[in-house]
Design a protein that fits this description.
The structure is a homodimer. Chain A has a domain of 122 residues: Arc Repressor Mutant, subunit A (Orthogonal Bundle), CATH 1.10.10. The first copy, chain A, is built from seven helices and two strands. In chain A, strand 1 and strand 2 form a beta hairpin. Chain A starts with 27 loop residues before the first helix and ends in an 8-residue tail after the last helix. The interface between A and B is large, with 79 and 81 residues. Chain A binds a DNA duplex through helix 5.
Chain lengths: 183, 183
DNA sequence: CGCGATTATCTGTTATAACAAGCATGTCCC
DNA sequence: GGGACATGCTTGTTATAACAGATAATCGCG
């Protein structure tokens, strides 16, 4: 039961805030989000830009992949398995290599197996592990979707110069250093 | 020799690279993902870095917010509602301002209402819309979580200089220009 | 008014994400 | 070589994301 008690406290007015920072430079994201206040710090602004840009691009890619009946994570997994070659990989290894974390590799692979894109098999040496390999159908699916992904990603970033891309990559890698690895 | 040929400034190139030889320039992300092949293009490398960095930072924030019983999107919504003041906002307006898209604002707000953090009410003038306002309890929750979010975000990016942050922000905003707005 | 088109939100349904507990090996150490 | 511990995956459960269709109110126009 939610007490839902009526708060005796009226919502504190958010009226003219007392000048928190020099809002001299109206930021682009601030306008996009129709925010009235300026960001509390450059760190916050960078973080929000990062998350928003990532979300927009992932969404764009998602829309492109949808007609092929495959999600970004599934595509990512297939790429990983193709790269791993015929030996296959364990669930843990796949998890480590995924661009963004998935706490349930088992069912992710289960879905891919149900569609015939991968095949799973208990390890012969260590019977605890399950080795997953990509199938011919999986390779075909990748062959079909690779150009879509490549051209989408390229199209999203084509307006930046090589130098700008390198700077961006460098900054992102350095930014990531303080974030704990996804576990 | 690096595959990074400096062709004339046309960003074309980045054709399929079959070169299985060890990459001359081992990128940081490539090592992180234990990839054997080099990235097919700078665009792909930038995209993957972007998505991964965003995911790691969001995950870090998620872990910090979890003890307070609130998700990132919920926190974002409450911030938006606090910023909007006592007039409240419609579902559509909230959706526009969310940093990352949520296709189901109704139930997102429903969960917040169930916890007493927001209150909803049909618009008097236009009875189609539902105006949502933050409650006292919602403001309290924000007061509790704001320092956590601020310090987390700050901690994640504190090792970058102001100039680097500004460059990063600028590049992200420019990168975003080609991505369709989240809808 | 009344009809159709539009807008804004809600509901139903399915799929996936997240977390926690469980089960089957494998390893180590006495 | 047998029991405690570690490892690797699976299963159960709940919450949330995603999408499509339904519902309700408003607006434009004759």
């Amino acid at each position: 039961m939610t007490p839902q008690k009526k708060s005796s406290r009226t919502p504190r007015d958010s009226g003219p805030r007392k000048n928190p920072a020099p809002a001299a430079k109206p930021s682009g994201l601030q306008a996009e989000l129709r925010q009235t206040k300026s960001f509390s710090s450059l760190h916050a602004e960078a973080f929000l830009n990062l998350v928003r840009t990532s979300a927009q691009m992932q969404h764009a890619l998602h829309l492109k992949l949808k007609p092929y009946g495959i999600t970004e994570t599934q595509y990512n997994s297939l790429r990983i398995l193709r790269g791993a070659g015929p030996h296959g990989l364990t669930c843990a290894e796949i998890g480590e290599r995924l661009v963004s974390r998935d706490p349930d590799i088992t069912r992710l692979l289960g879905r891919l197996e149900r569609e015939g894109l991968v095949r799973r098999e208990r390890g012969a040496k260590d019977r605890r592990v399950v080795l997953t390999r990509i199938t011919g159908a999986g390779l075909d699916r990748l062959k079909e979707t690779d150009p879509v992904v490549n051209s989408t990603v390229h199209g999203l970033l084509a307006h930046l110069s090589q130098a700008e891309l390198k700077t961006l990559i460098d900054l992102l890698e350095r930014a990531r250093r303080m974030a704990a690895p996804l576990k």
